[in-house]
Amino acid sequence: MRRHLAWLGVLGCVLGATPGNAAAQSADSLIVTGMRAYKNLEFDVATVLLRRGVAQLTAANAPVAQRAHGLVYLGAAELFRGRRDSAVAVFRRLVLLDPRYRPDRLVFPPEVTSVFDAVRLRTKTVAIVVPRDTAIPLKDGALRARVVASSFQTVNVTLLYENGTSFRPLYFGPIGDSLEVQWDGRDAAAQPVPVNRLLLRVASRAPTGELTSMVQLPLDLKINRPDTLPWPDAPADSALRPERAASGPATRAVLGGLLLSAAVVSLPAAVGSHDTPSGPRVAVASAVGVATALGYLLHRSGRPLPANIRANDAVREEWRARVAAVQAENVRRLADGRLQIHAGDPAAIEAAGP
Amino acid sequence: MRVGWLLLLAAAVGVGRLPGQTIHSAVAASVVTARVRTEQLGEAFQFSGAAFGGEGTVSLGRVQLGLSYLQGRLDPDTGNAPARDLVEGSVLLGVRPVEWLTLSAGPHARAYAASGQTQRWLYWELRVRAAKPFIGSAVRGYAELWRAVAADANVPEPFDHAQGGEAGMIVRLARAPFEARVAYRIDHAVGERGWKPWMAW
Hints:
Chain A is of the alpha+beta class. Chain A has helices at residues 2-16, 24-39, 43-59, 64-80, 84-97, 110-122, 247-270, 279-298, 306-335; strands spanning 126-129, 133-137, 143-149, 153-160, 166-175, 178-183, 197-205, 211-224, 338-343, 347-350. The A-B interface holds A 249, 252-253, 255-257, 259-260, 263-264, 267-268, 270-273, 275-277, 280-281, 283-285, 287-288, 291-292, 294-295, 298-299 and B 1, 3, 5-7, 33, 35, 37, 132, 134-136, 139, 141, 143, 145, 163-169, 171, 182-184, 186-188, 190.
């Protein structure tokens, strides 16, 4: 009589959990009812209820903990129904879902936990634990990801481009319980990451080297850099003095000297005196001529102008100092950039059975 | 005909500025080699000697006032004429319509003293002077012409005309407090009846 009532309950629950009502709440009810059936040793009923509940939780993308809770009861129920293969398959599914999961040994008897442990040891898979959102300094920061293994295995931790080609290997080697890997936000050439999306993939291998499973999660990347300062403009030509003498001053010296000498020599005639001695006039005109020659040499065209060169050098040096200051400031700002990392949901890729 | 000519050998000039940067003043000392030639009734006399003088200028904007004084002794180059003392001075008020041009006017007095007799001349002159740097800013060249519009002298023959000129250069090195001047100057005066009184500048 009690068995029939249980089956009626199963029927009611199953019919009530139509696709239209496949909500998490009804899945939870299936799981709870299945657990109650399991505790009442009604393993057939528990199996149906739990399988249905787990399916609904999976379809609803329920939290891993809820699904794992249902799976461990389902595996135990299958085991007690005498369907060891089904139990192994459920436990394997549970290990793949959450490699860190361990059955509560106060709830489940050693028959169950031993089977689960055997399955766990044979199943080589990992879980990747990464903060959902992280911001790391480009200069010296690092993304820390923890790889948790179901059992001892060899793993290959790699960052991949979206198309699957390798971006940067992070770790290859054995892993016991867990392993922390770090990525500094740069590629193999130590340059900032050039793309905005990468895949973090962990490939698990059996002791024979056979690829057993892969887990990967997408990393959305965004580099936030402060704006850099523009370089100061080079000194304009108008701000620089000519560094070579033009021809004007030399020409003016020659023409002015000639004109002045002529004025000195012809001065008596200009004032109406024609019989004056020429000696004094020639002496003054000669002095003017000597000064003119010196002036021409000192102001000849193309002559370097040291004062202007020094002044221009000072202007250029001041500009170079300002450029250096801006460069240093830009280097500092670029170093202060941060890489924002958003981790997506991990996906397990089962390569092959053990 | 009478011709006077001289060579201004050097002049040391100090330039100062009064507070307010509006009134500029300058003083100068001159060493002059002077030659004086006079002709009278076909007979020519020629004298030469050194003279020393000073001058000062005060300018306010485009207006300037110049004072000068010169004194020296002239010895005869030919003949047995007695030596003469030379004294002259001037007061000229000028204006600079443009930076390089100065127009000025004023009295110019000169005296020759010899053997207890003194010839005194007083000219009222108009002057025009152009000055411009021609070797960088260190050397300025200048030329000056003047003409007497009236004259008063204690000589028997009436005055006919007098004119003269000066040309030279002024050198002032960078940051130097003084400047040096080398110039040639000549004066020429003529009497109405050909009598040629003493003339200098």
